[in-house]
Structure formats: structure tokens, C-alpha cells
Amino acid sequence: MFGINGLLMDSSAPNEGDFDEKDLQLLEHVEDDFDKSLEELADELDLSKSAIHYRLKKHRERGVIKSVNATLDPLAFGLNMMVITNVSVTHERGYAEEIGERLSAVKGVEQVYYTMGDVDFVVISRVQNRTQMNDLIDEIISIDGVNETSSQFVMNELKTDRKVISNMSEQMRAGIGSRTD
Amino acid sequence: MFGINGLLMDSSAPNEGDFDEKDLQLLEHVEDDFDKSLEELADELDLSKSAIHYRLKKHRERGVIKSVNATLDPLAFGLNMMVITNVSVTHERGYAEEIGERLSAVKGVEQVYYTMGDVDFVVISRVQNRTQMNDLIDEIISIDGVNETSSQFVMNELKTDRKVISNMSEQMRAGIGSRTD
DNA sequence: AATGAAATCGACCAGCA
DNA sequence: TGCTGGTCGATTTCATT
């Protein structure tokens, strides 16, 4: 269950790459901004409006486009403090998954990663003030199996975007579909 | 026009909260799924289609909704390895910002945080294979001013969503607008 | 996989509470 | 300021190639 690739390659079918350059351009565009009209996209990519629509639909059906979401400004809700917490747990195997779920359920927690090495989980959270930060860390510590935590306060979010495609190098773009690991 | 708060309410203004319960519900919905039709949203929130449209437009104009984006599946592009890298830098102040920019520009890097404490940057990256992972870490090390790095391989992404609103506790929801830190 | 026509949906406006 | 109802234009869908 916890194989190296096991959890990353699960259920929702790892869609093998089958993209031409137009697809990558299109996906890069909509990843960055889904408000663009079909016409704009059609012009930029030199395709007909219908073709754009057809491709988008296909990518949705195949799960390449998982969803379309509004991106909200956390500051608009007073969420101006961010913390990165390293969590180590007591190694009674089997509990890891449950602890991960518990961590994910803590209010204010935004990201949870299970990692190899001495630190077991990396938890990224967002809160409004110091009181909430203390409460959040207390809640994490109180989870059964959590051994030790150490937190770093984020002073500046330099990059937070999830732009999968524009983050890729040329090499990565070339490597789509090929499995050379 | 420019009252007591005038200067605080300017242009790029961290938008002070001014949300009723309907706003929060609406924003929670569109943050989770922007594909819902105005009609669906109108039904769920007991408002007219026009009212939903009106509110969404307002939130956009105020920057509460920063953008609308397609969320892509990284696995569809073979990006099935994730690394969290702690980067410490030589403390010649003033360089930090430039180093942050350089880190952000490295292909494959998804998130960069500048933190307090002994570790200076936390960098989260996504690559397709071990070769790319090594290349990426080499590139980070080669950045001028970077002192030391230590990386953790991510075995499982338990939570990666940026659902600002659904991640908030009741206390946080109540705390919108009030500044009690 | 792409097209064009027909049905559906969202954007905008003037007016109103 | 927030909302309504109606109109117009854009988008989605579908039958065809």
C-alpha cells in the first residue's frame, strides 16, 4: 500500500500523456486563466472555436483537467499568517495513514505531505492570528501518535502557483509520456 | 471620500472582510467548483441568478476572487515525483529577495516560501524522474548565496487543495474583518 | 477529430427597494 | 448598495462529415 509509487499512481488513472503542442499551449492557457473566451483561445492557437471546445472537453473527460476553480485571496479573509510544520510520528506502522487524515482535517491546514526521512509529515497552514496559530499547533500535537513538531513561520510567499505546465522545463515537456525514471 | 481609513483602503488593498453568510457560501462553492451554473448556485443559496452574478462580479472587482483557473492533474504529464527542499543561504542581507526569485525561476519549482529560523527557504518541486530531481537540486545549489540544502522526498500528497474557505474554522469565519492579532 | 446549426447559459442594462 | 427581470450575445451541445 505504501509503495514508492503506490499512492501517487492510484485509482483516478494516471493518464498517459498524449498531447500535441497545441494541447500543451491550450492547457497552459486555461491553467493560468479560464476566463478567456473560446474565440481568444482560438485566435492564439490558430484553431477554430469548436476545435478548442472539443479539446477542452476531451481533457476534462480524461481527467487531465480535474476541475475549474475560483482562486481566492486569503488576505481578503484575514488569513495573513502561514506556518510550515514538520511533524514526526511514533513509528507504529499503519497509523501513518490515519495520522495523515487527522492532520488534513485540522482547520486551517492547507497542505499535508507524507515524506521519507526523519520528518514524517510536512504540514502547511494558514491562520488569522497568533492565537489561532498556537491553537492549531496544539491540535496537531494532541493527535495520537504525533511525536514531535517544529514550525517555521512564513515571512513571505514568493511563489504559490500551481501552474503545472508553465513550471515545466523543456526537458519535462519532452518527457511527457515517456517513462524514464 | 477619504475618511479615517482612507489610506488603508487603497488600490491593491488587502480587502477588509465585508462578507455575509451568503457570500461565504457562494465563495466556498466557486472555490470548489466553478463549473456550476448560475442557476444551480441560485437554487442552493436561495438567491436569483442575477444576484449571484452581481455578487460574483463584485468579488472579482474587489480582488477577493483573484482568477479562475483550470486545475490540471500533474500525473497526466508524468510529474509523479515531489520534493520538499529546505534551503539555507549565506546571510548577506539584501540577497534574500534575489535568491527567492532565482529559486522561483527554477523549472519544476512549484512553491517557494521565505521563512523565519535556521532554514531560510522552503521549496516544493515537482519532476518526472530521478534525473530531473538531481538536476533540480543541483541547480538550486548552484544559485549564488545558497549555502546548504536538504531534501525530503514526498511519498504521498495527502492534501493539496487551496480551498481557503473550507479550510477555515468557525472561529476563523467569525474572525473575518476583525483584527485581533 | 473537426464542423456548423440549434438550444442553452451567462453578461449586461435600466429601473426599483 | 443590493437586487430584479428581460434582452442580447456567447457558449455548449449535437448531428454530420
Word description of this protein:
The structure is a homodimer of 181-residue chains. The two termini of chain A are 20 Å apart. In chain A, strands 3-4-2-5 form a four-stranded antiparallel sheet, covered by helices on one side. Mean pLDDT of chain A is 87; it is low at 1-15. Chain A is 34% helix and 25% strand. Chain A has helices spanning 21-32, 38-45, 49-61, 95-105, 130-141, 170-174, and strands at 65-72, 81-89, 109-115, 121-127, 146-159. Chain A is α+β, with helices and mostly antiparallel strands. Chain A has two domains: 21-70, Arc Repressor Mutant, subunit A (Orthogonal Bundle), CATH 1.10.10.10; 74-153, Lrp/AsnC effector binding domain/regulation of amino acid metabolism (RAM) domain (Alpha-Beta Plaits), CATH 3.30.70.920. Chain A is elongated, with a radius of gyration of 20 Å. At the A-B interface, helix 1, strand 1, strand 2, helix 4 and strand 3 of A face helix 1, strand 1, strand 2, helix 4 and strand 3 of B. The first copy, chain A, binds a DNA duplex (17 and 17 nucleotides) through residues 37-39, 47-51, 53-55, 57-58.
